[in-house]
From TrEMBL:
Compositionally biased tracts (Low complexity): 26-35
Chain positions covered by the region annotation Disordered: 1-54
Protein name: HNH endonuclease
Organism: Streptosporangium album
InterPro entries assigned to the protein according to its UniProt record, in alphabetical order: HNH_nuc (IPR003615)
Length: 170
């Protein structure tokens, strides 16, 4: 392999006067430091406290998937249509109709199953997950609620129970 002379300078270096002797930094002198820029607080992309409370009230503080009461236990609000890593510009993402109470967190309990292994629970079939690329409105996708059966989540923070799911899904 033949090596060349490397990149050649196209403009000459500017000739400046050398620093006078004894005028440079002294040994042990503190070097000037730049102040670190203030860190921005992380952007909150989750639901508002009022929406979170409306979801907890609608779901009776009970896991939608397994039916266990989550008061005083690890639980979280699950997005049926995921937010994605940077949040989402979709205004429905933090809507009451897109949120469910589930036991556990993103790695344990039903929430862990929904996020890590949704196929084991048939999560999409039961309405607990809506595909990220789906155009379906979360309010129009029925959910299998552990203590109610099939129901639509309504924007007013209630459930509309579906009497005949076969008529809806066929």
């Amino acid at each position: 392999m033949k090596r060349g002379n490397g990149l050649q300078r196209t403009t000459p270096l500017m000739a400046k006067k050398p620093m006078a002797r004894g005028k440079g930094l002294k040994a042990g002198a503190a070097t000037p430091t730049r102040k670190a820029p203030a860190k921005k607080a992380p952007r909150n992309t989750g639901p508002t406290p009022a929406v979170r409370q409306a979801v907890r009230d609608r779901d009776l503080d009970t896991c939608i998937v397994c039916g266990v009461v989550v008061s005083g236990r690890p639980a979280s609000i699950h997005h049926r249509r995921n937010r994605g890593m940077g949040g989402s510009s979709d205004p429905r993402i933090n809507d009451v109709t897109n949120l469910l109470v589930v036991c556990g967190d993103g790695t344990s309990g039903c929430h862990g199953m929904l996020t890590d292994r949704p196929w084991e629970l048939d999560a999409e079939k039961h309405g607990w997950i809506i595909g990220r690329n789906s155009i379906a409105d979360p309010a129009l996708v029925p959910v299998l609620v552990a203590w109610l059966g099939w129901a639509y989540p309504l924007a007013d923070g209630t459930w509309q129970v579906i009497e005949d799911i076969a008529a809806v899904t066929s």
